[in-house]
Specification:
The chain is of the alpha+beta class. The protein has four helices and two strands, in the order H-H-H-E-E-H.
Length: 111
């Protein structure tokens, strides 16, 4: 079905949102991805992906309360939806199925 395909970054963001549970907001998602993948990116890219994922119905969001440390600004928190979990399950099943088809390699120590 069109719209259910995930790009690599979308999949990483979606997995991260799910793993952070109800604490997922753009800056923390960015930090988690950077620490786990060593990828260099900025928060603008994360915001863009989160908007796409929300439009596809894979995440939902709500505004948190204002805080003094953020100068009274509020954070938008993201949560994995049932549709988001389903598309991740399908993606992981496909990856695992393809991985299982890889031939076993024997290494001779050359190269």
């Amino acid at each position: 079905m069109k719209g259910e395909h995930l790009g690599e970054l979308e999949e990483l963001v979606l997995l991260t949102v799910g793993s952070l549970m109800h604490e997922a907001y753009a800056v923390l998602i960015l930090e988690e991805i950077k620490s786990n993948t060593r990828r260099t990116m900025d928060v603008t890219a994360i915001h863009s992906v989160l908007r796409r994922l929300e439009k596809k119905g894979f995440v939902s969001s709500e505004m948190g309360g204002a805080s003094k440390e953020r100068g009274g600004r509020r954070k938008r928190f993201f949560t994995l939806t049932k549709a988001g979990r389903s598309v991740l399950d399908q993606s992981m099943e496909l990856r695992y199925s393809l991985y299982q088809k890889l031939p076993k390699l024997t290494f001779t120590g050359l190269g």
